[in-house]
Amino acid sequence: MVDQKAPPKKQGDKQGLHGWKAALAVFGCGTLAAFGAFGVVVAILGTFISTFSSGFGSEEQGSDAVDSIAARPTAPRDEFLAEKFDLCEIIDSISAIQLSMTSGSEEPQDESIDGGPPAEDNLVRSGSCGGIVRPESTYTVPWEFEFSYRAVIYSPNEDRDELAQADLQDWVEEIESSGLTIEESGSYPMVDEAHYFYGAPESGVGNFYTVVARKRSGVFMVSLTSEDGASPEEFSYEVMKLEARLDNDLGSMIPR
Questions:
Q1: Quick one: which of 180, 213, 182 has its CA closest to 195?
Q2: Which DSSP helix (H) or strand (E) runs through 125?
Q3: Positive or negative: CA dihedral 195, 198, 201, 202
Q4: Any alpha helices (H) in 143-199, and if so which ranges?
Q5: Is 102 helix (H, G, I), strand (E, B) or coil?
Q6: Using an 8 Å Cβ cutoff, are 224 and 239 in contact?
Q7: What pTM did the predictor assign?
Q8: Of 7, 72, 113, 130, which is the most buried if we count CB atoms within 10 A?
Q9: pLDDT digit string (tens) for 19-77?
């Protein structure tokens, strides 16, 4: 088989591009290459920024979501879940405060509003417990901790909040007339309504700090005593570690 040779080029034929055609070709190729490289850089940079931003966004959203869930009050339930309503167990599970319970492991007490046997439409749950708190402040002796509560779950006259308000006032007056040396007292920024008392305990050694508070138709009292003495701000810092959980649980566990 004979190889066919290409016809010889004439002297007039030019190899390649010259003049304005060459310039146009070089410019076009260079421009396309530049745009292509720029596009790649933009795409990579966009992906990096998107990933970087989404990473921080998801982290912030996750943190905000947790804070929102902790801070957002839960709607009250339609019925009373008796096995879940034990405020001593609830505060014992709060990891923010270094609390060790030493008393109050008994079951909560149920009775009617007047102190008799409870009924379907007449129920008051109460309980108390105690222990020690190891505050974040440096103290050689842990603080004594006492907690008690009384929650009107059902009232035949549908006046649960009013009854709880009366309970709160009774507890406040009891502290005021107890003979304790009260150095400071006033309203306190906890749950729906609260009052605090700061002074010297009966022993005369150290300081005590008591908060009496109401959330819906439940009242509770937190009392801390330090033999070494402590400022109201140091006491308050530990008490407020209970606020979010008690606010949420009393708001949701007491039925509508």
A1: 213
A2: strand 123-133
A3: negative
A4: 160-176
A5: strand
A6: yes
A7: 0.71
A8: 113
A9: 434 433 443 444 434 434 334 333 433 443 343 333 333 333 333 333 333 444 568 87
